[in-house]
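Q: Make up one entry.
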Amino acid sequence: MRRLLLTLTLLLSTLTVQADDRLFYQPLNVDASLSEAQWQQIWRTSAAQGAKTLIVQWTVYGDSDFGGADGWLARALTSAHDNGLQLVLGLYMDSAYYQRQSELDTPGLEAYWQHQLGRSLAQQRQVSEQWKLPVTAWYLPMELDDWHFQGVERRQALQRQLKDFAGKLNAPLQLSAFSGGKLAPQVYGNWLGQIAGLGIQVWWQDGAGTGALPERVRQAYAAALPCSVGIVREAFRQTSAAGQPFQAEPATPSATSTGCHASAVFEVRYRPWGKALLDNQRAHAAP
């Protein structure tokens, strides 16, 4: 009997790890062509597969606001909520974000971040007032890497700005990060833990989909994360080369236990029930 109970416990643990409890969605303009019935099917199946929370990466990307309060994205997210998913809504993302990170020195980067956070704060207010969606938390789409934040002064400046920004929001803040192998795992993990200590939910992308780092290096970074930092399991395998437009194929996200860490999956279009999103994206990308 004891052996049977142990087997059942291990099985339930595995099922919990593999469930898409928190699921990312990255809006693209081409997604506008999906029908209401297709959205209903995606969200209904997401919930049936264990999803409870949908983390939307952004609600504005560059000059695109996806139709605003009366647009296709707002309607799609209303459908997601109606099908039982809690919403974490992304804010503003500068389409040139990564380019700017590479171009600016530390004082310039501080000013740039301040401007971008101001844009996101304005978007939070607009979504709160006009979109009429219940929001569990806000997501800041400006991802943190250890290429551009190797200097401790940059990391400290960012923490100060994030603390101030989070205090102005009407719901908790979330953001994500990924490793490039430029900071020691313990240093990087400690920094993300300090940000999490501000009351911000930090998500670390496991890098399995991009394959930018060897497995043993990725595992070293994962092992150095404090329990307060969540892990995003990537459900894709990148097929495009560096410098090319991003392309990827669906892949099963890691089933390895995330232990004390919260877990999320990126993203819905690479899950079997999100095939309509991926097929539509590929159709629009075809020459």
Observations:
- The first strand starts at residue 22 and ends at 25.
- The chain has one domain: 19-285.
